[in-house]
Amino acid sequence: MLELRPNCECCDRDLPPESGEARICSFECTSCVSCAQTVLMGICPNCGGELVARPRRPAGKLASNPASTERIFKPGGCAKSALVEQASGA
Q: Which UniProt keywords apply (predicted)?
């Protein structure tokens, strides 16, 4: 089951479970749509996988299957990693 992490790992923006602004990779690294599109170019800086829209859990299911409250924030922000540059051909 997806953790539905509560924030963007790059800019620390809040991303509640009902947000349509969250993007994740297959490892659930989480970014906001702004960081995912403008800085990361759709590529996860941690694993090199693609960032896609995070599914939203129905509100009725959140009570028995709550979203994660653990915040993961990379102090370096969204610095373009070697993985992103490699994937984009830079």
A: Plasmid
